[in-house]
Amino acid sequence: MKNPLLDYILRVRLPITIFTAVAAMVITYYVGRAERDGVGYSPEQPIAFSHKLHAGTMKIDCQYCHIGVEKSRHALVPAVQTCMNCHTVARKDRPEIVKLTQYYEEGKALPWKRIHKVPDYAYFNHSIHINRGIDCSNCHGDVAGMEKIGQMNSFVMSSCLDCHRNAHTKLPELKNINNGPDNCFACHR
User: Fold this and answer.
1) What's the 3-state SS for the chain?
2) How do residues 54-89 score in pLDDT, each as one tens digit?
3) In which band, very low, low, confident or very high, does the pLDDT at 16 lie, cut at 50, 70 and 90?
4) Using DSSP, how many helices (H) and how many strands (E) does the chain show?
């Protein structure tokens, strides 16, 4: 004897439930990508700063603003004082520079929103990469062409491993490069 309730559950409810669960996972996967790996993350900043103008047109080196990157594991976000090295004279009347000057005069740090970040459990050292001659654009993209900065590449472990295992093809500008360390404890401490 057939059970109509069981038949209904197996023929109608179960496929709908499975479809809904799979659809929700797929949608969550694609919608949550930027949050998961950061690619495409480009928040509004307190000051509309143009990397295209400063790094591109004016050709200011990354290390002028992001100091210590050749000696430290971190690339520091520039202090307001660094900006004011030029902007005490240049373009002082522009609205964004007026805001910048206000932070400077009040002695406040700019509340920049962090864009590029590796997970807390991973150890990344900028100085090792910079001192090997690896250009910032290999990881950060064409910053000199960006009006508004955003994350262009993924900083998940598979991205790092891909570059370390294939450094000779990923970084052709570097002559005689060996692959990076393949030892887990080089990055995870």
Assistant:
1) CCCHHHHHHHHHHHHHHHHHHHHHHHHHHHHCHHHHHCCCCCCCCCCCCCHHHHHHHCCCCHHHHCCCCCCCCCCCCCCHHHHHHHHCCCCCCCHHHHHHHHHHHHCCCCCCCCCCCCCCCCCCCHHHHHHCCCCCHHHHCCHHHCCCCCCCCCCCHHHHHHHHHCHHHHCCCCCCCCCCCCCHHHCCC
2) 999 999 999 999 988 899 888 888 899 999 999 999
3) very high
4) 11, 0
